[in-house]
Amino acid sequence: MLTITRVPTVLSLNQLDSPEKDAKKADKGNFGLKDIVLNEEGLADARLPLYYFLCRKTSFLSKKVRSFGDLQTVPDIDQDSSSGDESDQPRSLFDHTLLAEWENKFEEGLFRYDVTACQTKVIPGDYGFVAQLNEGRATKKRATEFRVDKVLQDFDDSKFNFTKAGANEVLFQFAPNPNEESGFEEAAPVRGAASMVLINVSPIEYGHCLLVPRITDRLPQRVDHSTALLALQMAAESNNPYFRIGYNSLGAYATINHLHFQGYYLMAPFPVERAPTAPLTKLMKRRRADCIISRLQQYPVRGLVFEIGKNLDAMAGQIGMACEVLQTNNIPFNLFIVDCGKRVFLFPQCYAEKQAQGLVPEELLDTGVNPAAFEICGHMVLKRSDDYVNLTEEFTWRLLAEVSLTEERFQEVVKLCFP
Amino acid sequence: MSGYSPEEVLGKNCRFLQGPATEKNKIMEIRDAIREEREVTVRLLNYRKDRSTFHNCFHLAPVRASNSAHVTHYVGVQMEVKSDELEQIESEEQLARQQCSTVVEAPGPSKAEVLAVSAALSSQRMPSTGAPDSNPPVTSSVESNLLRALNRVAQSFVLSDPVAPDNPIVHVSQAFLDMTGYSADEVLGRNCRFLQGPNTDPAARAQLAEAVREKKACSTRLLNYKKDGTPFWNCILICPVRNAHGEVAFFAGVQQEMKDTAANGVKVDQDAAALVPPSMPPANKLADSHQKAAVGQIRVAVRGLATGGLTKTSSNELPAAHGAAVA
Ligand SMILES: Cc1cc2nc3c(=O)[nH]c(=O)nc-3n(C[C@H](O)[C@H](O)[C@H](O)COP(=O)(O)O)c2cc1C
């Protein structure tokens, strides 16, 4: 059995040990919501904000693309015009809702630190890796052993999971609406196993949130067609190409075995978005109607790229299938969703495994960077000021290169996923 | 080159040239250059009107008004690259990469051409093509690459400089000007208290003063006056906003005029308001959420990072100009 020992990142206040938690919880109240937890009992009478989205499962191309253009014309908040003559309707109700609700939680003091007070910069070089100094993310929590050689693990109700989070950490319920346009309700009853968007109390940028599909179904960390679709739909609801969504499997730096995706705004390109792509190889080149699959080039971590074809659902099917293969073959991986859901990166990785085997050089481990989805894509979050000041492109590259499968192994994995 | 007629092109965003196989990372480069208001050269696959494809070596440059930092136009120069040229260039690039040396910048006419158009534009103030990017009003003295993101915030707001004496306004949104009737040059450089008047509640004002002093957020409602003297209830939210260095770079103030409707209990009796302080209207949830969303947008924008053009992007320079377009 392979394990690594690390201090888990605190995503919810109820993960904190009592003194720290009590200090935080004594903060301004929120109509007692903080005392309700997100299990069946707690949610029975709760009324929580509800964001419902037009279910564009298959209608994606016909509905959205006509008006905004599909990926060829990456919807772009910067290039689109907004000359102030429009109504005061925001460009996307989703972005409006997420920002407004997040700002509310910010004001209520629910986060463990003010993420906007963290320094951040672009590292000079060809790729534009982004570094952030985040000294507040660390906790006094005890380090725990994490098993890294088992990508699928059963849900364990005795461990922390999001049904134990406080209802005051909910930004909104996220539900499909097959009939109408997107909409928002301030306080709606919770029907069935609702999907929830929660704050991440240890944010790495503004708007950092967690998407927990069908929270009370207690799904383990595992991606399939339907949950991949939900994450893509959330990305598509945002009209902002600077909002991205990431996913970490167990063994690839997820610390909570309760299905969740993460997203935040970073108004800068992620280096991976700039990297060129190429068809897999002549042999494996596949251009399906469902989506176009290629591989990254000139990037330290080998990865696959999915681009939308027919619609979101078809793309989610391809991604779900690839993830299922990785999961059943016990290969840890990370996902990164960009361009409002129209492009997705998939990275099988082996850093945690190497770390457990003592194969990662000390100097890389010393930085404390856990290469999860956002780090792999070029956003390096550092805990020590010296590391932040001295970080170079060359060092970042070296660190990320350790995350990557070898060329040989990568090709094997690709063949597994797409036989 | 593209097969489109002028009517089909003018007033449109140039992305109609893009198609399914256009490289997404190249689009990203262009998007970033526009956001950061700098030059960029990329080679990407474009589509003619008849949907046939061509390799376009595209050079984009911002054009600034002659005496300001404000970008009034973008010039894009398109050059078709024939596929045999392309192969040669690609193999040269490949070679260059292998040898770990940088690609020599080709002295193509593209840059010169851009410069010529730029010069013409900034000296003559060419008539607007109707594109929304042209002639943005001068409403700000913040760094120009922040402007674009700030201009997308629909709400009425101002940014002030908390370091300068008495918190002068350094950015004002169009919605603020529309709401109050002031022009940008009447607002920039002043403290926002000019909106207050005889019946503004001193307690609310003191609340704001304290928040500014303590660098804290504060929301309150107080009576303000438009330029023509009309009083209105202003639901104001102010808060410090930090930049990428983590420092408080601005104070943001988001205003929401509370309209005189029976439904929200707001009452501003024009004559009475001039004489007696009317009672404060109740808080409004919807207004509050609009303001919070605006603050969120401002925070994200102010923390934005400019890459300033990475070294890699410049290696795409190619010769043979074919046409110029002004967007
Ligand atoms: C960014 C910002 C925006 C403000 N907007 C308004 C406003 O819209 N209306 C208003 O009456 N006061 C506004 N104020 C408050 C005044 O500028 C000033 O701080 C307040 O009157 C208290 O200070 P004083 O007692 O010195 O006037 C704003 C302040 C800041 C920093």
UniProtKB/TrEMBL annotation, chain A:
One Pfam family from the record: GDPGP1_N
UniProt GO BP: glucose metabolic process
Recorded superkingdom: Eukaryota
EC number: 2.7.7.78
Main location: cytoplasm
A GO term, aspect molecular function: hydrolase activity
Catalytic activity, reaction form: GDP-alpha-D-glucose + phosphate = alpha-D-glucose 1-phosphate + GDP + H(+)
Keyword Cell membrane recorded: no
Domain GDPGP1-like N-terminal: 94-264
Domain GDPGP1-like C-terminal: start-end pairs: 271-418
InterPro entries cross-referenced by the UniProt entry: GDPGP, GDPGP1_C, GDPGP1_N
Keyword match Acyltransferase: no
GO annotations of cellular component type: cytoplasm
Family according to the record: Belongs to the GDPGP1 family.
Name of the featured protein: GDP-D-glucose phosphorylase 1
Lineage: Eukaryota, Viridiplantae, Chlorophyta, Pyramimonadophyceae, Pyramimonadales
From TrEMBL, chain B:
Residues of the PAS domain: 1-37, 142-215
Keyword ATP-binding: no
GO CC field: nucleus
GO BP field: response to blue light
Pfam families: PAS_9
UniProt xrefs under InterPro entries: PAC (IPR001610), PAS (IPR000014), PAS-assoc_C (IPR000700), PAS-like_dom_sf (IPR035965)
Family annotation (PROSITE patterns): PAC (PS50113), PAS (PS50112)
Keywords in alphabetical order: Chromophore, Flavoprotein, FMN, Photoreceptor protein, Receptor, Sensory transduction
Residue span, PAC domain: 216-270
Organism expressing this protein natively: Cymbomonas tetramitiformis
Name of the protein this chain belongs to: LOV domain-containing protein
GO molecular function: photoreceptor activity
